[in-house]
Specification:
It is built from 4 helices and 19 strands. The protein is mainly beta and 344 residues long. It folds into 2 domains: 127 residues, no CATH class; 205 residues, Porin, CATH 2.40.160.
Length: 344
């Protein structure tokens, strides 16, 4: 059955490849020819130059024709490439490929997939059209967006509890990263990703009555009992560089983006700005007011850490963990930032 399928692929390929160049049906075809018609308009024409070759062709059976194809097998994947197009520059484009896995056979012909299942009593054949194999260039650039939530860990490796004035409220402690990235393919399904970008993150305090202010030699968290606090936070922005190694199991197994992706690497950044913001209303009336301190609040100028990603199809999750502390040594609480989010 599989050999007959291979012959069908060859016939279909000839019909597709030469559909635009075959003579119309009212043109005369050489008598030393074999014409195979299929479907409503499909036609394969095999032309020979002399009668000896023509007589040899008529005497050949399907098995002999398959052997004459002299198919090359990929030792790593077991795939057979029946036909490929090679241009004058030496570049090749795969047109027909056959993959066998036990009793199952898959044949790709351009944008069509033929699946043959010989595992049961009856052979099952499934044909899918409109498939296009996405190219996997050796080098590409792209833009992505990180969107996540921030928190930090204390020296014990725990999130600060609400009895600390700097305890973080998850909802509202946003992390936004704008990244221009490049990806270099090292081998099939294995990539080196690197790029530059801007990262904006803020830490929204759970205790909204505390305001972060710059003291004489360190950051201080002052409880404002003279006003009614609505929001209190610290924010910072960084110029970032990152690099990761990525394994894409979908592309490794010729499934495109229909597979698991994992990546890990590191990053480093330089602080561009930092401030605290306290939003409040005076007791007894008045609209909302804001107090801002754009002094840096003893934040570290450099940050560096590790980043991990895991994805499936178009969905990718990421996490980052700063190896350095958020504040300068002895200028604030010893906290290390951590972020969870998605890549858009």
């Amino acid at each position: 059955m599989k050999k007959y399928l291979l012959l069908f692929c060859l016939m279909a390929l000839v019909q597709v490849g030469f559909a635009g160049t075959l003579p119309s049906s009212d043109h005369k075809i050489s008598s030393d020819s074999v014409i195979v018609e299929f479907g409503k308009s499909g036609k394969v024409v095999i032309i020979v130059d002399n009668k000896e070759d023509f007589e040899k062709l008529k005497s050949m059976n399907i098995n002999e024709i398959i052997r004459e194809l002299d198919l090359a097998e990929n030792e790593e994947t077991g795939d057979l490439t029946i036909v490929e197009i090679r241009d004058k520059d030496g570049n090749t484009k795969e047109v027909v490929r056959v993959s066998e896995d036990g009793m199952n056979t898959e044949v790709y012909i351009g944008g069509m997939r033929v699946f043959v299942d010989d595992s049961g009593v009856n052979t099952k054949v499934k044909v899918e059209s409109g498939l296009k194999k996405k190219s996997d260039p050796p080098f590409r650039t792209y833009f992505d967006l990180d969107l996540g939530v921030n928190n930090y860990l204390d020296p014990s490796g725990s999130f600060p509890t609400s009895d600390n004035p700097y305890a973080v409220k998850g909802w509202g402690s946003w992390n936004v990263g704008l990244n221009w990235m490049a990806s270099q393919r090292i081998s099939k399904g294995f990539y080196w990703d690197f790029g530059l970008g801007f990262n904006f993150y803020n830490f929204k305090f759970e205790n909204r009555d505390f305001q972060a202010v710059r003291g004489e030699d360190m950051i201080e968290f002052v409880q404002r009992t003279d006003v009614d606090g609505f929001k209190s936070k610290i924010s910072a922005s960084y110029l970032m560089a990152q690099t990761m190694l990525e394994l894409d199991f979908g592309r490794m197994n010729d499934n495109g983006n229909r597979g698991l992706r994992i990546a890990a690497g590191g990053y480093a950044g330089y602080r561009l700005g930092g401030q605290s913001k306290f939003v409040y209303r005076e007791i007894g009336g008045s609209g909302r007011k804001k107090d801002k301190e754009s002094t840096g609040l003893f934040l570290n100028n450099f940050r560096y850490g590790v980043r991990g990603e895991i994805g499936f199809r178009s969905l990718t999750f990421f996490t980052t963990y700063d190896l350095n502390t958020l504040f300068q040594d002895d200028k604030g609480p010893e906290l290390q930032a951590i972020t969870f989010g998605i890549v858009l």
